[in-house]
Write the structure tokens for this entry.
Amino acid sequence: MIDRDDDALLTELRALPTKDVEPATAERIGRVAAGVLVESKADEGHPWRAGLTRATRALTPIVIAGTVGVYLAWAVSAANALFP
């Protein structure tokens, strides 16, 4: 187990300067962080949801790259048709 007093990263993080924020902003940041944590932990109890989440995260960049590739191919062929 990690000893929190001997952890170099935690020591460096504690040494960073802090920035005061308004209470409303701090509360909003806390709500967003808690929402993200709850969302990330919600899939742990359901294996099919966890698998679906992993698949979606893996497929999203592939779909975007494929869409860009198809559009680029169409744009080049359209430009070639305009200038024979």
